Amino acid sequence: MLVSTIEQLQVMASKKQYKEASAQQEVVSQLCSHFDGYRDNPKITELRDKFKNIKQILKSHVYSDFSSLGTGKEREESSFLQHLTDACLVVDVLDPSVREELVKKFCDRELISYQQIFEGADLAKLDKTERRYAWVKRRLRTNEEIWKIFPTSLHVDYLLCIQFCKLTRSQLEDILENLKEKPDVGTLLMIVFSILDAASDREPKVRGQG
Q1: What is the pLDDT of residue 208?
Q2: Alpha carbon distance 33, 165 (integer Å)
Q3: Is the domain of 12 the same as that of 89?
Q4: pTM of the model
Q5: In-domain check, residue 130
């Protein structure tokens, strides 16, 4: 039975049938646990290695599909977002490090445009800080359909905000270090109020992550 279930999983992985593969993977894991006492058996070792390889294939497929998110494919193919939703089911039964890496890759890619925009000469200024928080609010609002792809347990929008704050802090520190004159009190207060306003706006969702 273990042989046939692994073969079925292999077919599902090759066809990117994520929803079916997620359920099948749990079945294989349960069956493998029944053979824990036979780890020295060459056939069992071979099957375990095959299962491990299939999981790597699924991981590779999922990462590849998610790399297309934001390229316009989700608008061209109506089923693409559902396909990624199913992919998250597979991610959920893979190693936790896969989930963490996927979310980090997604958040990093989301922030590439932010980093490029606010490193430019026009916006890399303290008095433009408010625009930074307007950017992330707009991003979260306009990408609501994308956030629905991910299970709430992954806290993707929350983690995006965390990475956004870390990046913003780093960029603002660089700006302060390179200032020729000390900033005036009004500008500093504006920055503080911008941060507080953004934090209060996200507070209900942040509380929901606990």
Answers
A1: 44
A2: 43
A3: yes
A4: 0.78
A5: yes
